[in-house]
Amino acid sequence: MVDVSDAASLNTQPVQINRRALDAALIAPGAAFQAGMSDGHRHLFSDAVLFVDAEQVAQMQAVIDAVEEVVRRDKSGMPENGLGVFYGYDFHLNGEGAHLIEINTNAGGAFLNALLIDSQRDAGLSGKALADPNLEQTFTAMFRNEWKLARGDAPLQCIAIIDEQPAAQYLYPEFLLAKTCFEQAGIAAHILDPSDLQARDDGLYAGGQKVDLVYNRLTDFSLQAYPHLRSAWEKLQVVLTPNPVHYERYADKRKLAWLTDEYHLQAANVSQTNITALLRGIPQTRLVHAEDAEQWWTERKQWFFKPVNGYGSKGAYRGDKVTRRVFEEIMRSDYVAQRLAMPGERAVSVADAEPQALKYDVRCYVYDGHIQLVAARLYQGQATNFRTPGGGFAVVRVVG
To answer: What is the pLDDT of residue 385?
Structure first.
């Protein structure tokens, strides 16, 4: 008999979501959403349920709290820059605890995972959902707060959801969910490429409507390629969230090196409790310098190499998989190296085949230090993807 209070035991069992309930939830958003869900999205959601224990959740929250203490020591420029929506704290969970792999300031998937989680609230799954009870209300309140921090009690009337060629993005269906969420709250919403924004003397316009707030999903974090958008933000003509300040404070990979440097944390008067949480919860991270190339090559199997301004696992390499040619490219580029913290595994059955072990990471969607929801991504290979049969976004439940 499986101990339903033991996450590790439950993760070896073929516990699955109510797929019929999810399918019904995927129909509800309407024809546009259905059209946005292509054959390429067949591995967007996993049928598997991932179980975590309360101690792992507490450790993730402790790391998040510690990062917030460090970052909030410098809040210059607030409130115009706001707090930043949908920070993604990505963790690997294994027998040694919870390990923060990176922080993203434009983390995708929150609206999609909200749909998944809400579809399973009455599914009778073991454990407890790691999510606020009304996620759409939570999300709307978050965007309204970003607006209020910059504009006070003025009404928020128009949001632009911005990405390059948004209809071609894999997570385009999420943009449609966000648009619907905003419109149901009485806020006009547009899904646009940055080139669709018209710059006028008083700000940015979508068609004939002035844009109050931009929900930024671009991966040009400094906005150098979009001078009209950056200029409007710098002139306080539009509220931009997340924005370059948020990225610099939280998501630049060099921040991980700072957060795992005990000497600098002590010099910054970070509390010992939070220093302990950071050093325990974030794998040691170091800046890569070419003059140390031979040492890096010798120790490469202990490290994971990540480009400083990378995203979505692009240009990231496990040291034990890297070739000499790629290693030399790393040495010529801006990289950090993070000590390997292996992801956990979840047994998954696909089409009645024998269960196979898929890797997973856990993403905490965070606003103002508060975890709004927790989701997992199941995958095979070196990094997360949505191409693995049985993989994709997965429901997370806490037990014990």
So the answer is: 85
